[in-house]
Amino acid sequence: METKRRRKIIFVTPHYHCGVVEVAGTWPPLGFVYLGAQAKKAGWDVEVYDVMSLHHKPKQIKKHFKENPFDVMATTAITPTYLDALELCEFAKEIYPECTTLMGGVHPTFSYKEIFEDENSPLDYIIAGEGELPLFNFLSNFEDKKLRHKTSNLFFKEDGQIKLNPLRALVEDLDTLETDFSLLDWSIYKYHVIDDSRLGAISTSRGCTFGCTFCSQQRFWNTTWRGRKPEAILAELEHLYKTFDINVFLFTDEYPTLEQDRWEKLLDLIIASPMEIYILIETRVEDIVRDEAFLWKYRKAGIVHVYVGAEATDQEILDKINKEITVDDSRRAIELISEHDMLSETSFVLGFAEETAESIERTFEQAKAMNPDFAHFLAITPWPYSEFYKEVKDKIEIYDYRQYNLIEPIIKPDNMTLRDIDLAIINCYRKFYMPKMAGFYSVKDEFKKTYLIKSMKLIMKSSFLIKKFAKLGINPVEMMEKMFKKNKGKHPQMPPEMPPHSHSDS
Q1: What pLDDT is attached to residue 67?
Q2: Which of 12, 39, 106, 155 is 20 to 30 A from residue 418's alpha carbon, by CA?
Q3: What string of H, E and C letters represents the secondary structure of 43-61?
């Protein structure tokens, strides 16, 4: 009796690069770890092909597709990666015309109408919103098209009509969702700032309860927040640490610290563990201020890098974008992070409709006064599905989604040009980092000092800054080397052993 062939799904990251986030490391596609587990559970063979981390070009992607046949090609997209994700669908159809193409993520969830209005779109299906359980049902019923088309969260086009199946309720207990970390080639994932590192990613929660007008995440998760149990998070950390030698962890969630008691319990569990790890997190400034009494636990648990979204230094702008923080909280949070020997990172957004040269200078002066270790000066980007987009629609001049990356100005202010904003961003970077480089060698904590210098080398060699600085006739690498040579002459090496747990408790 002939054995029925097992179906195969390949998960592929878009081949998009803008030279910002990938400066610091190669980041694991955590979503595919969750989705791949569901595909296996449905009885499918699974492959994860991380094109983005491998830096594969279209020719290499097509070659890989030909050598690794599949039935379904699944990808994901945010707005700037969408066009490349769509191109992956084109490559798949070109090689396997009968294959099925599938896309998830924020952009297709909210921009489905624009996507399916294209009569020649190579995309067959969108799984909107939280995708794990819908994907399991989609693949389990794949052979029966009628059942397949009843899958919750499934958006598709049939007989010329766009079909939108109802969204299922969000998973109440995130710890019930399986993961399969063996799907990834862990040799790829490095955090370039720390020597001999292997970079992992875990999610400790999903969602955010705040309503920042420029953000897509609060809408994607219906302005809800769900946290995983601290014990389950610790078990996952230990599994990755022991099984795959992961020693640097990115907490991928937007808001891991919302519930203070849960968060402190997680820190206590990590501190009690024998693991020697480094952790990178993002959170809100008011939680850093809230946790002042036990911030020492952050560092002792291994947290070395904290991103907080200051976004603006003008309270009127913060209120306008519904950020629900104060300038004073932002300033105090950055001070506290530094006082506890962690690296602080934040961003300041430029290019609002009312922006002027004077308002940009005020933002820069306040950013300099806040003095984070790392500052990003970003161009406000109106995601096409956000409330903010509706407010500024008549001022948008750029429609190429690949440029919706927070680097390229999209909105033309009333009293400035796009080039004015672009040059202002470059000048803010130049004026912020040049004086800071001179002070790196006076940093007392050796780990922090080396982290700063290595990070600065990476930032100044990043493609986006090199391109932008060229507009001013500046080579950022030469500028950096001259600064370091003037102050020290040579770069320190990473201490051979600097386990986070070696720091004092207070």
Answers
A1: 98
A2: 106
A3: CCEEEEECHHHHCCCHHHH
